[in-house]
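Troubleshooting log. The previous structure file for this entry was overwritten by mistake, so regenerating from the original sequence record. Sequence copied from the archived sheet and checked twice against the printout by T.R.
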Amino acid sequence: MNWSVYIILCSDGSLYTGITTDVPRRFAQHASQQGAKYFRGRQPKQLLYVENNHNRSSASQRENKIKKLTRKEKWQLVRPEINPLPSVKNYHNIAENTTFKCSGSEKNDTGMG
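Regenerated output below.
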């Protein structure tokens, strides 16, 4: 199964990193309070970054590495044009104005928030 690692900008300005097999569905779950507990006190504002083509194990490992980065390093990853880092395979930097419409009717997936 194809897993993705993603970073979401939250309504409080924080950056949330997670993994899933379906990024649009997971974003909708976070927006409808059905995803991770992290979103109980904040809303997902914008999907900033996605790395595709992982298996569950490599996605979890990459998620943990990203979560250990400082806030500045995460922004460098999300916005390489500001302060480039070495290239990362299988990633897609989401355009600044990209958002997903959320219906809130999706069911939970087995991916970690």
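Helices lie at 23-31, 56-67, 71-78. Archived copy saved in two places this time.
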